[in-house]
Task: structure prediction
Amino acid sequence: MSGFAYVVRDGKVEKPILKAALGNQDAGLTWIHLSTNDERAQAWLSGEAKLSQYIIDALTAAETRPRCDAVGEGAVINLRGLSSEKLVASDPLASIRMYALGGYVFSVTRKPLNALGPVREQIEGGKILDPGDLIAAIAQTITEELDPEVAELGDSLDDCEEQITTHHAFELRRMVNSVRVQAIGYRRFLVPQRTALEKLANLPGEWLRDDDRLHLAAAADRAARMAEELESIRERAALTHETLTDLRAEQIDQRSLIIAIVAMVFLPLTFITGLLGMNVAGIPYAHETWAFGAVVAICVVLAVAIAAYFIRRHWFER
Result:
């Protein structure tokens, strides 16, 4: 189990060890963060931090989704953000689980969360003074980092739509599928995250100031806009995929038609050459010197006539 702690008192920032961070009742903010995926975090939160089992389960659950629940005078908040570790497509965002009460914020992550670095810099720079500032900063950093990722998905889909041709259908289908999977994965968490942020901004409690509520509302609005953009990307990707599938089917039909026409041209020629090539007695003109040239001429005339018929019927243009 690893982690860190910050204590902000009268604008001054301290970085004590985890155990020493407890008991700072006069501090404006005490932030204790654990990075773990094992049972030692549960033991520490229970034995050292003296948190209730409900809070411990919420902070250390294996599977979470964005949420915000009032617990007495405090709140449990789960948010999702980008991670430096490559995650599966169905679960592309790392979670941070937080419990805020009074001047304390306990947080737990199971995967590396990119937003923690900038937030720690803000604390060390004296820009975060209380739990409301901390949670609002985490929410804003997460949404600001996700915004360009969502925009890039839209740009990738724009490029795919501009390049739709029968020559690039197969490659574009893979690109569109990739964009669609990422959009679905992000949207899965951004929609409930918007709800969680809106609920958090409206929670009663003195630990959330008016400016914190405004920042949380702004983060919620940004999350809502990204969720709407992801929904649009998902629908556009589905339509683009259908178009590419139709183009692929049309390409296959066109090639099948050409093969069929070529077979129709050579079918009577094959019959004639096969009939005259039988190794039996009685083949007409078998000993005449002009017979081979005549057969070749007949085959050429038949091939030209059949091809001309298909051309007049515009079969090659279908």
